[in-house]
Amino acid sequence: MNATPDHVLNTLNSMSDYVVMFKKAFPNEASPVIFDNFAKAIEAFEATLITPAAPFDQYLEGDTTALNDQQKAGLKLFMQTGCSSCHNGINVGGQDYFPFGVIERPGATLLPASDKGRYAVTKAASDEYVFRAAPLRNVALRTPYFHSGQVWSLKQAVGVMGETQLGIELSDKEKNDIVAFLR
Ligand code: HEC
Fold first, then answer.
1. Over the Cα atoms of the chain, what is R_g?
2. What distance in angstroms lies between residue 65's CA and the mean position of ligand 1's atoms?
3. Whose CA is nearest to atom 2 of ligand 1?
4. 133: CA distance to ligand 1 center in Å?
5. First-to-final CA distance of the chain
6. Which of 83, 96, 139, 155 to mutate to test the pocket of ligand 1 (most atoms within 8 A of CB)?
7. Which atom of ligand 1 is nearest to the CA of 97?
8. Average pLDDT over residues 27-56
9. 139-148 average pLDDT score
10. pLDDT category, 1, cuts 50, 70, 90?
11. Mutation choice for ligand 1 from 56, 86, 177, CB with most ligand atoms inside 8 A
12. Which of 87, 170, 173 is closest to 134 using CA atoms?
């Protein structure tokens, strides 16, 4: 999310509660606030982010009352406009890489010069600004959005996706409906 490893470690070290918690979590290490332990902590946290029987799962299992009308309208838009062609599977995303800007390139703030996505791994020009289509489970709980970390509103992120990935201008109501579904 637009933070360098050094920046992450400086931030953690500047917050004494974190230093204490890292000592507790990694008791056999003299200086536990290191990048690898930070990664382990996030991994352990993410493993708790399971959403068994979320309303969406209940709906898929046949409980048609699990989503309200606005959420159902959002789901319909999510499928009909094409969001689900990239964000699909059990985590509603995370299955594949796609260019950010299939139809229209987002502005430079959303395509940071320091993070060109898959290009860093493959060095192929066609992989510039190719990113994993983010899994969208719990997405309402994890601002900021995109690899640039510049977008703090889910509604705005949905609008950006419509323009850049699908070439459509979603109306205010459509954005609200999709956000209701994502929540
Ligand atoms: C062509 C593939 C594609 C389509 C179509 C698409 N997305 Fe995305 N989406 C992506 C990629 C790739 C990213 C990651 C971009 C990044 O991290 O910079 C992303 C990121 C997002 C994010 C930010 C998630 C996060 O955790 O930062 C949201 C929200 C989102 N998409 C919603 C939607 C919605 C809603 C639609 C339909 C209107 C849509 N997407 C259509 C590929 C797509």
1. 19
2. 27
3. 86
4. 6
5. 21
6. 83
7. 12
8. 90
9. 92
10. low
11. 86
12. 87
78 near 86, Cβ under 8 Å?
Answer: no
* Interval 4-20 mean pLDDT: 94
Do 178 and 67 contact (CB within 8 A), yes or no?
Answer: no
- DSSP-derived secondary structure letter, 28: T
Nearest CA to ligand 1 atom 16: 146
Task: Report DSSP letters for 143-177, one per residue.
Answer: PSBTTTT-B--HHHHHHHHIIIII-----HHHHHH
Question: Is the pLDDT reported for residue 9 higher than 90?
Answer: yes
44 CB-near residues (< 8 Å, 6+ apart): none
Give the residue, by CA position, lying nearest to ligand 1 atom 15: 146
Output the pLDDT for position 175.
98
CATH of domain 55-182: 1.10.760.10
Our answer on whether the CB atom of 100 is closer than 6 Å to any ligand 1 atom is yes
56-106 per-position pLDDT tens digit: 999 999 999 999 999 999 999 999 999 999 999 988 999 999 999 999 999
Q: Domain locations in the chain?
A: 5-46, 55-182
